[in-house]
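Anyone? Bumping this.
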Amino acid sequence: MYTINQTDPYQIWMRDILVRALLVIICCLLFSGSAYAHRVMIFGWVEGDRVMTQSKFSSNRVVKGGDISVYDSTGNRILTGQTDTQGEYSFQIPAQEQLRIVLVATAGHQAEWTITKEELESVSQIHTHSNNDQIQSQPQEPVSGNCQQEVREAAFEEMLDRKLKPMMRHIAESSQTHTSLRDILGGIGYIIGLMGLVAYMRSRQKEKQG
Amino acid sequence: MHISEGVLPVSVLVSGAAIAVTGTAIGLRRLDYDRIPQAGVLAASFFVASLIHVPLGVSSVHLILNGLVGMMLGWGAFPVIMIALILQAVFFQFGGFTTLGVNTAIMALPAVAVSFIFHPFKHKKTATVSIISFICGFLSVLLAALMMGFSLFLMGEAFFEVASFVVIAHIPVMIIEGIISVFCIRFLMKVQPSMLYNNEGVKSVHD
């Protein structure tokens, strides 16, 4: 077993440093228990014919008055706006194509979220489908079982939308990664590993010279 | 104090990266064998310090500890801060890889600057060293905030507006870091002076 040679000042020094490092790390972990990473993020989801967005700092505080720009698939800015006091911003779907939503918060903080074409289509198809059918079917069969069924379907979709709203939001939100203890320990592990690597390389240099 | 990806133009990113690479090269040459454990401890501290944040107005600011790293390591602050920033980008999504150079320069240059202020005074009386430590801790954040304002200015934002916003936002951090620096330096003076004054026969960080 490796034991510390109490007479070797260098080993004592190393041991002291390691003990202190552990103390520092433990203190930092205690401190950071309730704290979150400092980063800004935005997430968006489609709701009916609107795109909803929510902007937050990673400390879970909302971004008030953050500048939002929406870009289409060719990179043209098609919309600009500001988040409200809830950190939310919503807009009518401008086009059935991929949308890039960019949030610029305070100095140097920026985040973006992409709404894919498929995402827009899958939601809006249901709506346009039911709307078109209603319009088309009304002149042909003003009062019929078919029309009633359409109305029922539309009501059902609306209800589904309402029910799914918190779900959609939750899914969008949970796709953002949060800092965990595992990340912190992982990072510290890397640092210790790198430190060992550098020390090893330097000790070989020393051997060669000596 | 992390600039996100996609904010700055390429010219600023490239010059930031050039400063960071040069600084890291100098730092690695100065970082001798006996300082490696110390560099590791400081890298770990810098890495986690950014998770300790102070909520403030519309934003929130976090501890940086670049002053402490600079006081202890001089030019060695460059490799230490760069490694910590890489890991912060990987694990916390702070900053990013394209802005790594700029962010390293923003935080490490002030660290090196304060080390030049600190070193002539470190053999003085405890009270003097305490005051100097506070100034160094305070100044390192102030300089970093000014540098950040400057890089955002190069992007096209009005310098005075951005710089004053960043500086004001970081005033609490400057004070906290000043106090932390005093405690750390006084603690080391008492229990482990060799970490501050180098081991006998070990090359000084400013040779």
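Late reply, but here is one note on the structure posted above: The longest strand of chain B covers residues 53-56.
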